[in-house]
């Protein structure tokens, strides 16, 4: 064999190997929040590489600022997932110039509009619809692994059954329970549980970074001091002097406090996180 033919053969082989690697390379998905990234990884499995921009439960997501590193993280992504309806406007701005990227606006996908409570991931329906959307997009981008995505999606749906069962059990036992919160982070889950949520005006003001009215503050204080609520749900991740004072007031008057976060704790999955939050609610109500 001549040297030229040998070189040509090696080159052709290398091209085939590189092409095979390119086809087998995992699909990069970037999610604004880590709970969406977790669902994407559960559905995509080994065929995706998933990164989340906000993953630290100690960070206030409302004060998040985009860095050049964050902007670079979406440069090679094929799918981007964000919450929408004002919760992560910075992500929508980042994605504006990426026309070839598959963009999943979770709020729009699930029929939510501006002005709705943006903490939509606390509604399990949202995550089921998101998992379906992810499966469909991955199947189109990577039809060779369509069966794997279908299998993973079915496994995710099945893993949510215990959460629905637990919600049903709590709702049957405690529907109508009156509760309050420093912010409406748990609002959709409260609705699933059938709880009556007081002081919504106060909560929305805190969420929107505006000052609650004097009457709203007084009403919440009265609910705590007069034990009109079963517990105070306290957003551990988004705090200020006013919410800290409310927590102290609840403690002073021996009103139970249930903590919650907006971002999923590290080292867990969405299903485990929601179960932990429901355990906190259940433990307080069963005392």
TrEMBL record:
GO process annotations (BP): metal ion transport
Alphabetical list of InterPro entries matching this protein: Bact_metal-bind_prot9, ZnuA-like
Location(s), subcellular: Cell envelope
Protein name: Manganese ABC transporter substrate-binding lipoprotein
One Pfam family named in its UniProt record: ZnuA
Lineage: Bacteria, Pseudomonadati, Pseudomonadota, Gammaproteobacteria, Oceanospirillales
Transmembrane segments: none
Signal peptide boundaries: 1-24
UniProt entry keywords in alphabetical sequence: Lipoprotein, Metal-binding, Signal, Transport
Keyword Iron: no
Gene Ontology MF annotations: metal ion binding
GO cellular component: cell envelope
